[in-house]
Structure formats: structure tokens, C-alpha cells
Design a protein that fits this description.
By secondary structure, this protein is mostly helical. The protein has a domain at 9-62. The protein is 73% helix and 0% strand. It is built from seven helices and no strands. The N and C termini lie far apart (126 Å).
Length: 168
């Protein structure tokens, strides 16, 4: 029988893993988180049982990274810029988020290209204005045609009335 290798996890890792489990989105299950953290599902569930037992109540609700506003995300990125990995992990633990959340936020902020969006908006606005001008021209043309048709109907009615008077 081969001896089983037991991995030792730091207390910080355990706290972050539990925080991640308790703040997971509804569509993500515990197995997915365990796979993402490269650990055994049974170990993670055991930590959850122990945490629940130690608290004598429901598990605490951690802050979800999705609950941060854009301003709070930018502030967090500003505060953590240039931190060492240890300091960054400590900062994240205090606020109940993960370093990977910060990395995603940074990527999202850097991915935004304001010039291309402004150009797209300007092009869209230009197209809408052209469409508006064309629609107004068409409406004006149809109004003229309607007025002409109404005038012809009035003239036709008067013409028939004149012929009716002469026949009598």
C-alpha cells in the first residue's frame, strides 16, 4: 500500500478558498471551485463543515467582487498598484476579494478604447442624422401629395356640382 501524500495548505489559502466558495455565483458549484484551486473537493467541503461548526450558524457572506462599483474597482487598483504578492494577498483578504479579481478588473479597464467607442458613436450619430433627414424629406413629399389629392377631390366635387346646375 502506497502512502498518501497529504498537501498542506496555509491558513491564508484556506480562508481565501472558503471566501471564494461562499461568494460564488449561483451557476458555479463547489466542484468547479475545487478544480480551479487544484484541490480535492472533499477537503474543501471539510473546511466548509468545520467553518460552519466553528461559527455555530450559517456561513458568513463574503463580499462579492461583482458588488464593487467601477469607482471602487478603480480605487482598489490604484491602492494595490505596485504591492508585493504578500501585501496584495493581505489587502485582498481584508476586503474579501481575490487577487485574480483585481487582475480581471485591470484587464477590463485596459481593454476599453475610448477613441474607438467615440468614433463608433459619432458614426452612429451621423447615420441617424442622415436617416432623419431622408425621413423628413419623404414625409414632406407625402404631405404635398396628400394636399394635391385633396385639392383635386375638391375641384372634382365643384366640377360635378357645376354640371349638375347646368343640366337642371
Amino acid at each position: 500500500m502506497m502512502p498518501m501524500n497529504k498537501r498542506r495548505y496555509s491558513k491564508d489559502f484556506r480562508e481565501q478558498a472558503l471566501s471564494k466558495v461562499y461568494s460564488r455565483p449561483d451557476e458555479q458549484n463547489i466542484d468547479d471551485i475545487a478544480t480551479e484551486l487544484h484541490m480535492n473537493v472533499g477537503t474543501l467541503k471539510g473546511w466548509m463543515r468545520k467553518a460552519t461548526k466553528d461559527q455555530k450558524g450559517p456561513p458568513r457572506q463574503a463580499v462579492k467582487a461583482a458588488d464593487f462599483t467601477l469607482a471602487e474597482r478603480l480605487l482598489a487598483l490604484n491602492q494595490t498598484h505596485g504591492m508585493t504578492e504578500e501585501a496584495l494577498n493581505g489587502w485582498c483578504r481584508q476586503r474579501g476579494i481575490f487577487a485574480q479579481d483585481l487582475a480581471q478588473w485591470h484587464k477590463a479597464f485596459c481593454a476599453v478604447e475610448p477613441t474607438s467607442t467615440a468614433r463608433q458613436e459619432a458614426a452612429t450619430l451621423r447615420e441617424l442624422r442622415q436617416t432623419n433627414v431622408q425621413l423628413q424629406r419623404e414625409m414632406h413629399r407625402k404631405d404635398k401629395a396628400l394636399a394635391e389629392a385633396a385639392a383635386l377631390l375638391v375641384l372634382q366635387k365643384k366640377f360635378r356640382a357645376l354640371w349638375a346646375d347646368e343640366d337642371a
